[in-house]
Every structure is written in structure tokens, then in C-alpha cells.
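Worked example 2:
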Amino acid sequence: MMHKSCLRYNGSKWWMQTNHHLSEYIMKASHDHPYCELFFGSGVLFFNLWHPTIHAFLNDINGQLINFWNIIRTRRAEFEDAIKYVWCAANNQDWFPNWEADPLERACVFYLNNRLNQHITKPTILEKDLSWWANRLDQSRVFIDCKPFEEEMDYLMKLYTHNDPERLCDIIFYEDPPYFGSEYVYGKKFKVNDLETEIPPFKHCLLLKKNWEAREKGHNLYISYNKCPEVLEMYPPEEGWYIKEFPYSPNGVAPGRSTERTELLISNHPIIQRTNQRKLM
């Protein structure tokens, strides 16, 4: 069974999950093999992982987004009560006069804007029971962070470095960075630690550098990207990177049309689909 996120988000992961079961290509997490998403977004992949994760680090640079997930995880009942009688308005902030100062009200405004805003797709139904997503977060020991990806990687690689060579402990990194040519699809400004910050151009080369560091330390990497010459040059198979291609035809576009493209899943390990685990979901 596939599970959508309670948020609407630009990107291809829901389509990839429903058509190619993308989560089944991610290796199993455990106490000594924690799972980390550096660009969490709507969390579609995390919510569809076929294995129950014991430790999970969920990171995104968007402070409004991270505040929302923290509220859903820790104050879901209050959140649902706050939006119980709220419907679409010209300005969703009008429902919550203290939204800039109150994290709960800020999460409500973020959610309303996300679900009812026409800039992503056509408006959709406003889901007011978020218990499934809150419970899914609680099934794991989840740590939700709001950091630049390089800081999160440095922190986790330091945290999971042990002096005991007999103890194998490595991280499973899943990365869904902004794609080449669409770096600003999520906007140019986010609130980080309650301060509005202009997002600089995404540093693909910095991500590559951190991935090489993680690879050399024995961590596990899974990277989603669009197929383009720049990505293929950064992650060449002859240097030990494994690449699997997936056809991507959004919105029901027939194969062969101009909008069809290819999605890549890149890893430092052979990419194996664990279809026999689907029954565990």
C-alpha cells in the first residue's frame, strides 16, 4: 500500500514511488545503520519505507517545513483542534493572528498555504486528521533538524564515528537535492530559526564533495537526480558509482512525448530492489 504525504510538494518522488517503488531500493536501517534524509521535504520516501526504521534523522533547510513536522510529531492534537473549523480563506494568516510568534499557529498557516495554494497544483481537500503521519514518525526514534545539508552530514559522520574497529556503524543517507536546472523550484527564501533567509544557489559540487567524504568513511549513499551531463560527469560509474535509470512521465504523459525524462538513483553500492519485503508494509 502506498502512502501519500499530508503535504503537497513539487518534485517527482510520489510518482516514482507509485510507479517504481523507489523506497524498495533503500537498504534496511537498524540501530547501527541509522537512516537520514538530508532534503526531507514532504517525506514521501520516508513514509513509504518498507522497513521500520529504528533511528531516523530528517533534515531540511526550510524552517517553516521543519516546524510543521515537529508540531505534527509532538502537538498533533492541538494542531488538529486549531484547524478544526478552518477552511479556505483569501489570507490564511487571518485565522491565526499570532502566527509569526507562535510555532503552532505558524505550522497551521504553513499547512493551509500548502494544501490550498494554487501555485503548486490545483487546490485539494484539506485533510484534518494527521494521526497516521504522526504515528509513523513515532514508530522511529526520529530527530528532526533544520540545517544546511553539509552541516547535517558533518554532524552525523562525527556522531557515528567509533574508535572500536569491531563495531560497524554507518549511516544510510538518502538525498533528493534540487535538480540541475530547477534549483529554485521550492522558492528563493525560507525561514531558518525564525529569520527569513535568502537561499543561495544550490552547491552541487559541495554535495559531491561531502558524498565522497561519506563514501570514504564507509557510509551508504542513495541520491536521486535528474539525468543530465553534469550529474553523469560528477558520479561516473568507472569511479565506483552505481546508477539506475527510471523513466519518468508525469501527469500521465505518454512515453515518447517531449516532457518525458529520466530519473536517476545513484549509490556507492549495487542497487537492489527488495520486492520480497513489500508484504511487510
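Residues 156 and 171 are 8 Å apart (CA to CA). The first helix runs from residue 13 to 20.
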